[in-house]
Amino acid sequence: MRVVIDFQGGQSESRSRGIGRYSLSLLKAILRNKGEHEIIVVLSNAFSETIEPIRQELDGLIDQKNIRVWSAVWPVRECDERNGWRREAAELVHAAFIAELQPDVVHVASVFEGYIDDAIGNYSLLDKQIPVSASFYDLIPLINSSKYLEPNLHYAKFYKRKLDQLKRMDGLLTISKSASQEAIEYLQRNSGRVINVGAASDDRFHPIDVDSSIAAPLLRRFSLVKPFLMYSGAFDERKNHFRLIEAYAALPDRLRSSYQLAFVGGFPGDYSVIFEKKAIESGLANNDLIITGKVSDEEMNLLYNLCHVFVFPSWHEGFGLPVLEAMQCGKAVIASNTSSLPEVVDCNEALFDPFDAEDICRKLEEVLTEETFRLSLEKHGLEQSKKFDWDIVAKRAVNAFEILSKKRLQPRRIIKSKRSLSLESLVENISSISSITDSPSDQDLRTLASALDVSFPARARPRIYIDVSD
Predict the structure, then answer these.
(1) pLDDT (0 to 100) of residue 436
(2) CA-CA distance, 317 to 313, in Å (whole number)?
(3) CB atoms within 10 A of CB 218
C-alpha cells in the first residue's frame, strides 16, 4: 500500500500551533509503524523555509527520495481576492502532482489551511477511485459561528468550502471522542467513516528536577518571583483568558499575593495589551499577571515543571494538548468540564465550569489550599498521561489506511472533476481557468512554467531531439 501524506498542515501558519505539532508527531509515529507499506510525504515549496527542518526531523525514518516537493506560482492565500487565478492553477498542479504518485490512499494533515497563508488543496479534483482521509481536529468555527464566521463572510465562504470537502472524504481520523461526535453530528457523517485514532504528547515533556542555576535566570527573565499558576495555549476568545483573570483576581488576598498567574506563549502584541488592561480593571498589581511571549519547547518543558499548578479554562477543544503536556510533566492540572477536556483529564474533581468565573476561582482556591488534593492530581496526571501513546495512535491510523485502500475501486461520493488530471492535460486545464477577479501576468506564467518543470521531472514529458551540428 502506498500512502501519500499531504503535509501542508505541518508547514503552514499552523506549524507553530497544536495542529502543526500534532501533524509532525503523528507523521513520525506513522513512519515508525508503517510496516511494509510505503509512505510518501508531499511538501509545498510555498513554505520553502520549512522543507529542510522537516527533512531533518524525518531523517532516519524515511528515505529522503520519498519526501516530494511541488511548486506553483505564489501567493495564493484566499484572504486576498486578487489571488484567484494563481490559487486555481495551484490546485490543479497540486492534484496532478499527487495523482502522478499513484497513491492507494491520500491523507491530509489539515484541511482548514490556506486562508491567511499559501497552503492549497482542492481534494475534490482527485480521481474518485483514490480514497482520501484527513486528520480531524474540531468544528469550533462552525459550532460557534456567531463568533468566528458571521463577522467575516469572506472567511465563512472559505470555511464552508472546506467543510464540503470534509463531508465528501472517505475517512476522518479524529483526535478525540469529542471530535468524533462533532464530525458525526455536524457533518452528518456515517460513524463508520469517523475513526478516533486519538492523540498523544511529545516525550520531550517529562518530569525533571530543574537545577537552580537553570531555573533562576529563566524565572528572572520572565519576572516570575513567586510560585506561579500557568496557562499555555492560543489567544482566541474560546481560550477564556478573561474569566481566568477574573477568577485569579477573586482569590483571597493571602492567596493572590502568594502566587503569580503566567500566560506562557506567543501572543500578538495587541492581545498582551488587552490582557494587561483586563488585569488592571480586575484590580491586579503590576506583577500579578505575567505574559512571557514566545518560548522554545525546552523552555516550555522547564516552565511546566516549575509551575505550581496548571490551569486550562478553554471552553472548546478538539483535544487540549497543553493539558496532557502538563500532566506528563507531573503537574496538578485543573481544566474546563467541556468538549474533549474531561476525557483527557479523566478526573471530575479537577474540572470546573469555564463559563462561571466563581467556579474557576473555587477550584483554584481548592488546589492552592489543600495540599493533599494537589498532590493527588499530580499523581493522577502522571498515570493518566501514560494512556496516550503516539505509537498506538499511529497503528490506528495505519489500520485506517489499510481499510480505506481496500475500497480503492469502489465509487466515491464526490463528483469527479471534468478536468483530466493527466499530466498531458495539465497545461490545457490551466489555460482554461477563467477568473472573474484577476488574470495572470506574464511573470505569473513564467513562474508557473518554471514551477511545472520543477514539480514534474522532464522524463515524464515527451522530448524532441534536434541535430544542430550543421
Answers:
(1) 59
(2) 10
(3) 17
CA distance linking residue 111 with residue 249, whole number of Å: 39
Sheet of strand 38-44, all strands in order from the earlier edge strand to the far edge: 67-70, 38-44, 2-6, 105-108, 132-136, 171-174, 194-196
Q: How far is CA 290 from CA 189, 227, 261, 357, 366, in A?
A: 43, 12, 6, 19, 22
pLDDT of residue 302: 97
Nearest of 264, 313, 328, 323 to residue 293 by alpha carbon: 264
pLDDT at position 410 is 47
Query: Does residue 411 sit in helix, strand or coil?
Result: coil
Quickly tell me which residue has 488576598 as its cell.
Answer: 253
pLDDT, residue 151, reads 94
Angle in degrees, 0-180, between the axes of helices 84-100 and 423-431, rounded to the nearest 10: 170
- The tally of CA atoms less than 13 A away on the side-chain side of residue 404 is 31
For residue 345, the model assigns a pLDDT of 98
134 forms beta bridges with: 108, 172
Residue 108 — φ and ψ, nearest 5°? Answer: -105, 125
Grid coordinates standing for 247?
477568577
* Cross-strand partners of 38: 2
Cα separation, 5 vs 110, in Å, equals: 10
Burial of 428 by CB count in 10 Å (0-12 exposed, 13-18 middle, 19+ buried)? exposed
Point out the residues of the chain with pLDDT beneath 70: 408-424, 435-437, 458-465, 470
The Cα–Cα gap between 125 and 416 comes to: 6
Task: Indicate the SS3 state at residue 196.
Answer: strand
Q: Which pLDDT score, from 0 to 100, does residue 266 have?
A: 80
118 and 76 Cβ atoms separated by less than 8 Å: yes
231: which strand partners? 263
Q: What is the pLDDT at residue 415?
A: 37
> What pLDDT does residue 237 have?
84
Q: What is the DSSP letter of 15?
A: G
